[in-house]
Write a structure and sequence with these properties.
Helix content: over 70%
Order of helices and strands: EEHHHHHHH
Strand order of the largest sheet: 1-2
């Protein structure tokens, strides 16, 4: 993957890779320093973390509730829950790695093709970049000047960002996504497994259901606070779909248990 040049204050502080950048904006003499914290750097790992934890929590809790509703013993519930944790974590890691690797391969192919086009038709690529800036609202002369200056510094980087939509903030990172998904799935799945282990046999379903919904509410709130998103909407969303999954699986377990 082509490395993109640092921009703004990031160029002076290479340690900002993977953390929120601190960007200084001078608004006039004596106005002091205005720092902005940009959350876009969290998008990749936050998406994988929320998806993994939510999937681990809902799928494992639903599996346990379904087996309990079918009349399974406590040992069967714990064995199935433990197997679901391991299998789910491995599945999440493999799935994330394959899908994000496909994205990375596509990005590399696009960058290679763009690099070839720059070698073969530099004026045409400059005109293409100029047209992009004109479409975004710049005057033609200013757009041409901006395209010329950016291409003199890093032609491929400019076209990657503004033509292809690829940047150092959004570039695919397969290993990071795989490890994050596996770890967060396991951390989400262990919670209902512990509740099932501690709950009395006759009360396993109601206790686990309530605990799962509480955990889901906390997960939704944590994700919203981390990403500075609306809190209530995130909590309601994950709790609703978690309750739906638990209800459907419990009904299926009771139906299959009665049929066996």
């Amino acid at each position: 993957m082509t490395a993109f040049p640092p921009r703004g204050d990031d160029a002076a502080d290479p340690s900002t890779s993977g953390v929120l950048p601190r960007v200084a904006i001078r608004r006039g003499p004596g106005s002091g320093r205005h720092d902005e914290h940009h959350l876009v750097r969290r998008i990749g790992w936050l998406r994988a973390a929320v998806l993994g934890a939510n999937d681990g929590l809902v799928s494992t809790a639903s599996l346990i509730v379904g087996i309990a509703a079918a009349g399974g013993s406590k040992s069967a519930i714990l064995v199935a829950g433990g197997a679901g944790l391991v299998a789910g974590a491995m599945s999440m890691a493999a799935g994330e790695y394959v899908s994000v690797s496909s994205q990375a391969d596509t990005e590399k192919a696009e960058l290679a093709r763009e690099s070839q086009e720059l070698r073969e038709d530099l004026p045409g690529e400059r005109a293409e970049l100029t047209a992009i800036y004109v479409g975004r609202g710049l005057e033609p002369d200013l757009a041409s000047a901006v395209a010329d200056q950016l291409m003199r510094k890093d032609a491929l980087g400019a076209h990657a960002r503004d033509e292809l939509g690829i940047s150092d903030l959004t570039a695919a990172r397969p290993i990071q996504a795989a490890l994050t998904s596996a770890a967060t799935f396991a951390s989400g799945a262990i919670l209902p497994l512990l509740v099932a282990w501690a709950a009395p046999r006759g009360l396993a379903i109601p206790i686990l259901s309530v605990a799962t919904l509480v955990f889901l509410g906390g997960l939704g709130a944590a994700g919203a606070l981390t990403g500075h998103a609306p809190l209530g909407r995130a909590v309601v969303r994950v709790v609703f779909w978690g309750a739906f999954a638990l209800g459907v699986t419990a009904g299926a377990g009771a139906l299959f248990g009665a049929a066996v």
